[in-house]
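Hey L., structure's done. Input below.
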Amino acid sequence: GLHQLLQPVNASYQNRSGKKARCLQGTRKDVLETIQKWADRTSLPICWLNGSAGSGKSTIAQTIAEWCADERKLAASFFFFRGIGNRDKISHLIPTLAFQLSTTVRGMEPLLQNALNKEPSILNTPLSYQFDKLIMEPMLACSKRIRNFFKRKRMVIVIDGLDECGHQDRTLMDEFIDAVVDACGARNGRVPFCLFITSRVEEYLRKKLETRNARNLTLQLKLQNFNAAGDIRMFFQSEFETIYDANRLLMTTDKVPEPWPSSEVLDTLVKEASGSYIYSSTFVDFVSRAGGMPHRKLLDALKAHGLDDLYSQVFSNALYPDGVPGNMVDLMQIMGTLLLLEDPLPIKHLASLLNISSRRLVEIFLSIQSILLIPESDDDLVQLVHTSLKDFLLAPARSGNYFINPPTRHLSIAINCLNIIERNKAEFWFGVQPLSYAVKEWLNHLHKALSEEERYPSDLSLIFLLKDSLTNFASSSLDPWLHSMIMNNMNATIYKEAPLFSPQVSRNIDVKPI
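Output:
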């Protein structure tokens, strides 16, 4: 069926993984009403909501998607998220939207089926062509029924987090925006849907969405122009009331008065948040998580100034519980692996790759649970509460002692991959994780470790481990690995990375050429 042909990803407002926060009742009124009026009345086919990291764009997008669904005017939705499955790859955007449209727009399914039957390789064509053939033409072909419907209510496509695509997808993102603007412009804005998109104000997106053609079709909303201080105060009050109620016996025993915290503390928190919802929610999560007295944890968290300080506080508490070094020495190595994997792995496979038990891995993640989304099942993925955590950990000037050095971590992942290949010997089954990941990606991680402009990895112990792992691999696994890669049509990977084994590169890391 269509699902098999289009292979959509779970990225809609309903079935995406991770946190699906919606706006707290009574908050973000101005911006929500502005977007709802646009969706109901305006002739402009595009609305672009932009704002800084953590300013609440995804929460607003979730709320708008739910409102559209309640009003029976949601055509489709796609929530990008960096580093999660295929939700950061724009190549999955149009097939996923098309599949959703087949379920929300009557008459779309047979038209899509026909388009795919005519051109089975359409998903390999340029995005502009896909947009035309899988979205625009089929929706226009349903024209009479749809046009009459749109006289009453226009359907909305919601796309959240355009900036969450990888750097390699920027050209494709430009192509997608051009396709939408061209399609809308050619029809004087009279298209069978309107498009609500959110993103940070990245320069490459701004250049595309602020061209003359795009400006004439777009309502641009800047979140910084909507004062969020009152809403954030309401959020803090609501969350802290819930925390107090959940810990009432502890709080009353310790004689913590209500309302808690005081108005002065709330003023301080609102000022520190500076309009950032991710700061607010991370702060509340830190205070509410199990372990310790909430009012004392609140005092600890107040020592942090801004989101970076709050992230540092979380790692400090995990690594130095009670002010002394704890037993979480693996935490930063594990976080580096989580952030730098080419494709995310569920807990049980990540644990296997790291050669530790799933239970131990979960224990380590629980030490920073206020900034992670930890699933109940080991078959599911651990996710970051917000992508700003990755930005923080990969920026040495911001993270200091908690900096994750990409070359060193990539080298560590390459060694882990080689070790899991060695443990499984010649069993190169591409369907079995994490062995499949190790077979396909070890060379890629080694390339990234040794190709970073700044420097080669400086950890000598890792260099020696790499030397041992490569020696073992060359003697027992190289031939079956090559055979497996060729049988699975991955010759290009071998050719691309072959220069790594030149004498010059090998000398730099003190490894004999293979």
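The first helix runs from residue 2 to 6. Residues 185 and 213 are 7 Å apart (CA to CA).

-- N.
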